[in-house]
Every structure is written in structure tokens, then in C-alpha cells.
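Long-time lurker, first post. I've been practising inverse folding by hand and with some scripts of my own, and I keep getting stuck on stretches where the C-alpha cells seem ambiguous. Below is the full C-alpha cell string for one chain I'm working on. Before anyone asks, I'm not after the true native sequence, just a reasonable design that respects the backbone. If someone could post their per-position residues I'd love to compare against what I wrote down in my notebook.
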């Protein structure tokens, strides 16, 4: 892919980001590429722009995002109606979605300028609240939909079905429905498996289940997953990609399926998913 116009978005709360924005912009300018900058990012770097994230996405061929995984999730949420390929430059410690570290800016820009970047097609979740999905605006998630008990130290009950057939009623701290991209996030922390990004499946992972035989289950990404808040005594909350939690009424059914849209996540051609896993999880092989 030879991107003609680059959109630049940064996490403005990260230390040293202003300098990094200017360094990235200068590198792209050296390749005679057109650069547009999101307005808050521009203000931080002492530049001028009035473009919001959705406006920027509509004008660009590729978005370069400076931050961490949370920054990419935030950008995906803001541009859900105008998704464009994203190349992430990591500013932080742990990042599975960012293609390179901030120390490799020159290498990243050169690869983008020469069209030598690789793309991974990432499935998204479409989440509908209530029993009549057509009456509500669906929410889009790159990582996961998480059902939780909020601040109360109580178990909640979540009746779960896959393609209309009963799976089980989880009695747990919560439940995670994750894409392969999200399998390395909260689901992994809760004991779920790591899924290859284009494996064509979702994973359902209970959080601290009361029944020890309740374990993660992998389902096709063509499945329709329904989760009913069957808990009568305590509130249940739904969080999409770490955004503001929403309270789910008792008896409400949340329907989760694969979205029609996908996200193209870019990386350097020599950065594979498995090399990233080895690096981030510090897998170095046996010591024996």
C-alpha cells in the first residue's frame, strides 16, 4: 500500500509525545508525503489544525497513532464510521497493537513511504443492547465486551447462548467476549487462550467463575452470542473496549456478533504476531 496522505494522532498525556510528533512529521516531510494532524495532537506539538479524529480519518489513507494499545482502541472508537488502516508507534511498555517502538520512527516512516508495510485484517465485535437489536445503535469493539459486577464484591449470573443454544449460566465475577485481537488483553489475564489474529474465532472467558469446570470456550466468529443478565439481586455492567461501563437491566439480553467492518492493522513486514508474543510475554524457551 502506497499511502499518499498520512493522519497523525497521539496520546497527548504521554511524556515526550510532543517531540515525537514533530520528529514523525519531519520524517514524513522528508519523503515529500502529505501530513494531516489531529487538532489536540497538533496543539501539543505547537502546530495548527482543526481536524477531529473522524474528520482526519476521512481525509487520510493511513493513520499513524502514537501511544499504546489503549490509544488505538480510543481512535478506533472515534472513527468507527470511517475506519482507516492504523499503524501504531508504541509509547509505553506493553503493546500488542503497536507496530514498532518510538525508537524506530525512522525505520517505520521509511517503510510506510516505500509501501513496505504488512497488514493484518482484524475482526471487530458488534454489540447490541436489548432484545431488539434493530432498535438500538450497535457499538463496535476491537478487543472485547466485558460483563462485570462493578464495585460490589459479589458473584453475578450471566445466562449465555451461542447461535440460540444454551451454553451455560456463568456464576462469576464477570464474563469476557473477546476477538483474537482482544485475546491478549483482559481475557489473557483471566486465563483465556492467545488467539492468532486472523484465526476466525472469538473466545468466551469467565472471570473468576464459582464453578471450577467453567473455562474459556472458543467459538466461530460467525456465531451469534447472547448474554442475559439473569442476576436479580445485584447490578451487572457492560464495558466495551474499556470505555465507560453501562448498567444492564435484569433480564436484558446483549447480542454480540462479528461486525461487517474490519480494521486493517499495519506493521513492519518483519514483525510477525508470534515474534511480538515472544517479545511482549518474554518467551525465551526452556531453561533446561
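-- Answer (accepted) --
I ran through it position by position. Result:
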Amino acid at each position: 500500500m502506497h499511502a499518499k496522505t498520512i493522519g497523525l494522532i497521539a496520546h497527548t498525556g504521554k511524556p515526550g509525545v510532543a517531540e515525537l510528533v514533530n520528529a514523525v512529521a519531519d520524517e514524513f516531510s522528508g519523503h515529500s508525503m502529505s501530513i494531516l494532524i489531529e487538532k489536540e495532537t497538533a496543539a501539543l506539538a505547537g502546530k495548527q489544525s482543526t481536524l477531529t479524529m473522524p474528520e482526519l480519518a476521512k481525509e487520510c489513507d493511513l493513520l499513524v497513532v502514537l501511544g499504546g494499545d489503549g490509544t488505538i482502541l480510543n481512535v478506533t472508537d472515534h472513527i468507527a464510521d470511517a475506519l482507516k488502516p492504523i499503524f501504531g508507534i508504541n509509547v509505553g511498555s506493553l503493546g500488542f497493537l503497536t507496530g514498532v517502538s518510538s525508537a524506530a520512527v525512522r525505520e517505520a516512516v521509511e517503510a510506510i513511504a516505500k509501501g513496505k508495510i504488512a497488514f493484518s485484517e482484524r475482526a471487530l465485535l458488534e454489540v447490541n443492547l436489548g432484545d431488539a437489536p434493530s432498535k438500538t445503535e450497535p457499538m463496535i469493539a476491537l478487543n472485547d465486551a466485558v460483563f462485570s459486577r462493578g464495585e460490589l464484591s459479589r458473584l453475578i449470573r450471566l445466562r449465555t447462548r451461542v447461535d440460540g443454544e444454551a451454553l451455560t449460566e456463568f456464576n462469576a465475577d464477570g464474563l469476557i467476549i473477546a476477538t483474537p485481537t482482544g485475546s491478549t488483553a483482559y481475557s489473557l489475564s483471566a486465563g483465556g487462550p492467545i488467539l492468532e489474529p486472523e484465526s476466525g474465532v472469538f473466545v468466551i472467558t469467565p472471570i473468576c467463575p464459582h464453578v471450577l469446570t467453567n473455562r474459556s470456550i472458543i467459538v466461530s466468529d460467525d456465531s451469534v452470542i447472547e448474554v442475559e443478565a439473569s442476576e436479580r439481586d445485584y447490578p451487572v455492567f457492560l464495558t466495551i473496549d474499556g470505555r465507560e461501563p453501562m448498567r444492564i437491566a435484569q433480564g436484558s439480553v446483549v447480542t454480540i456478533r462479528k461486525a461487517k467492518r474490519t480494521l486493517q492493522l499495519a506493521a513492519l513486514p518483519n514483525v510477525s504476531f508470534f515474534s511480538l508474543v515472544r517479545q511482549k510475554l518474554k518467551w525465551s524457551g526452556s531453561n533446561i
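A couple of notes from the structure itself: The longest helix spans residues 17-30. The chain is about 20% helix and 35% strand. Happy to go over any region you disagree with.
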